[in-house]
Amino acid sequence: MIATHPAGQAFDAMADTYDDDFTQSHIGRAQRSVVMQDAFRILHGRRRLLELNCGTGEDALRFAENGWKVLALDASERMIACARVRRETAGTKENPQFRQVATEDLREIAGEFDGVFSNFSGLNCVRDLAPVARILAEKTSPDSPLLLCLSTRICLWETAWYLLHGNPAKAFRRWSGRHEAMLQGMPVDVYYPTLNTLRTAFLPHFRLRRVRAIGLFVPPSYAEAWIQKHPLLLRMFVRLDAVFSRLPLLRVLGDHMLLHFEKSGEAV
Ligand SMILES: C[S@@+](CC[C@H](N)C(=O)[O-])C[C@H]1O[C@@H](n2cnc3c(N)ncnc32)[C@H](O)[C@@H]1O
């Protein structure tokens, strides 16, 4: 029997509503579309893809539909169950392969991969990413790209939003680098590493090539009800993100940051 990771248990309780709450939301779609545009470009020509913290399988299914062979992992039993149902609904049986494996237990998976993908903050639930980087280096072919989307340490939107709503504790919750979040009443430790911490954790195996903000002007998902009343504003924010998301300071001040690493070729 698989011992369920604490974050996996907490996400179990969110799995059945996750797609309605986030995947299908205006904000979720706007943020995901930017990640996936970069993913398709950067992972082009790579065949065997490893996805970490895949959730309900939205991205894994898109990769599989577009020719990638995908092994997609998540700590949550319920998220993996939802992903398998989606795969059946899509009419495919074996690709993507979904498995309940926590990122901390990566060593137990077999196979070699040409690229690694992680979307929307699953890696923020891992306390130390240096051992994860080491195992990924063992399991990837030379020059493999890693495309990782994590929550930032400082999100300008979040700070402004919660200050305006009179909630300073939430406004600054990320700033210390660690926060105990309550997910459906269950506590989960969430870590907010800085860009430099991440760069160091992945060295010497992976070299950081590019970084961009995801959700710099596009707000975090808790602003969904507000943004639904302002569709033109959302369109404008999407355009502003396209212009400003790669600028040196701004790229780490969005809701998420998207990091593109490449295997450095040094001995593992
Ligand atoms: C915000 S969801 C993102 C899901 C998906 N990647 C997406 O783009 O919609 C975060 C996911 O990370 C998973 N997760 C959290 N901690 C994890 C861990 N230590 N190992 C593996 N998965 C984890 C959760 O179960 C959840 O499915």
From TrEMBL:
Gene3D superfamilies: Vaccinia Virus protein VP39 (3.40.50.150). Residues 50-128 form the Methyltransferase domain. GO terms for biological process: methylation. One of its GO terms (molecular function) is methyltransferase activity. It holds the Pfam family Methyltransf_25. It comes from the Bacteria. InterPro entries: Methyltransf_25, SAM-dependent_MTases_sf. This is Methyltransferase domain-containing protein. It comes from Terriglobus albidus. The lineage of its organism: Bacteria, Pseudomonadati, Acidobacteriota, Terriglobia, Terriglobales.
